[in-house]
Amino acid sequence: MTAITGWSMAGIAAIGAAVAGDLPYHAPDRNAGTPAMQTPLEDDMGRPKPLELPKDVEAKLGGIEKAKVDFLKSGVTGRYVEKDALFDRIRKGDAQEISAYIAAMQALHAQVEYKAGRDAASIPLDTRSPWFNAWKAKRSGALDPRRAAGPIELTRYVGGWGGGFATFAGAPVAMTPEDLKAGKVDVAIVGAPLDMGSGWRNAIDGPRAMRMTGGAAGNDMYSMINPNAALKIVDYGDIAIDQNSTERSVDHVREMVGEIAKTGAIPIVIGGDHSLEYPNVAAAADVHGKGNVSVIHFDSHYDIGRGRVHLLDHGQPVYRVISEGHVRGSDYIQVGLRARGPDLETFGWMRNKGMRYHTMVEVEKWGWDKVMARALKEARENTKKLWISFDVDVLDPAFMPGTGTPVPGGLTMREAQPIMRNLCAQNDIAGIDIVEVAPYLDTSYKTALNSNFLLNACLAGIAMRKKGLKPGYLNPVSVDHGLDTYYGKKN
Fold it and tell me: Please, which domain of life does this record's source organism belong to (predicted)?
């Protein structure tokens, strides 16, 4: 492992417990908006490594003041210039030029890092505002006309599509946990239009686009099951989001996802950006217990960023979940990675944490059947509950152009639909999120349409499990017209 990471054996030994067994769990009295724990040394991969100077370069620095030479040897210059370019500049410069060059980097370095008294350590809020919590304050039922608890049907017509009000999968709505309990709801689909955690905006419109576009409701031809008939599904509305603060928003998302899960319903969260994975999985762990939930994370990106200025964005949720002990690293399974990262050092970090990653390189070598069989085996090793976090950019941009960080070379819909259907049929699902749908980045409507078909595949899989059908079940009527024995035994 040290060959990959460059870490000392002591650094690896410090996290041996994480590889061998449970991570230490830190019960979160604090929340995402409060300062995070100090990053453990083995996680601080942004810290510089000492720079070894070639003999000829060191000789050229003979007349340079010691503080400047020590600055070079500290390795921090690697943040601003590649070492080969640095060495070349020193070899070609005279003493005055070299001194000025190092001084310029020192001045830049002094600006980059935090300095107490100069830089704000937090973003202040106006606590005097009379509307400080109005964005997430829930209306009391006493303000509304009295009604019996239970789902509310918003369709106006008996048949057809589009009458009444648009909802996820054409489902009735529920507003309270009492509605979920009274309706014995199996699945509650909830929108979380968080849009502050991604670099390219528009995930705010993901829930709206998926409600307005068809594909989530109706018959699944593979199983010949209509999830709307087999399951009690509701649209649980949208979770309130403070679009000026990811940190404030995710705390409330965690409360609301937990509210659904505590009733026994499966929460399906429609995002919104992938920052949501942190509160979603944390909520599942709150309800089912830390260490009792595994995660299969579909994404072209690894999302374990750390050492960034903001404690949470769409590239850091996995690190937050693992570092706070909601899920063990060994119970985090990543599928579909193919972006420019991770680098070798980050792959080393992931291995040291016990994470299981499955890149598109692995898929190309072994094929989806073998890779998913391996991923599923890993997800079941230590836990019974599974959370599926599905970033739509795991699909190829040909199928998901409307997402903030598309990466070519991804899944096709023909691959993704059976994967999601079978995962949901084979596992006790703690919850699902479908995130990073940004419809305004799509000149067609295929992003929302395909996302809804994935949602339908999930619902069909949950219905298959409820009916006791075996994973991979295909209805014989849709498999074969049955009028001959062309494939052998008549279906």
Answer: Bacteria
Looking at 3.40.190.10, 3.40.800.10, 3.20.20.70, 1.20.140.10, the CATH number of the domain 151-467 comes to 3.40.800.10
pLDDT at 286: 97
Give the closest residue to 433 by CA, choosing from 386, 399, 398.
386
Task: Provide the pLDDT for residue 164.
Answer: 87
* Structural contact between residues 421 and 222, judged by C-beta atoms closer than 8 angstroms: yes
Looking at residue 47, what is its pLDDT?
74
DSSP letter at 395 equals: B
Helix axes 95-112, 83-92, angle to 10 degrees: 150
pLDDT at 491: 52
pLDDT score for 312: 86
Interacting residues of 454 by C-beta distance below 8 A, sequence separation 6+:
390, 392, 413, 416, 417, 420, 434
Quote the radius of gyration of the chain (alpha carbons, Å): 26
Closest CA to 228 of 220, 218, 236: 218
Tell me which residues of the chain have a pLDDT lower than 70.
1-46, 160-162, 199, 490-491
pLDDT at 60 (0 to 100)? 94
- pLDDT for res 341: 83
332 forms beta bridges with 295
Which residue from 445, 437, 443, 403 is spatially nearest to 206, judged by alpha carbons?
Answer: 437
Exposure letters 461-491 (e unless 16+ CB within 10 A, then b)? bbbbbeeebeeebeeeeeeeeeeeeeeeeeb
Instruction: Please state the domain extents for the chain.
Output: 45-115, 151-467
Taken in order 343, 349, 350, 351, is the CA torsion positive or negative?
A: positive
What's the CA gap between 425 and 469, in Å, rounded?
A: 8
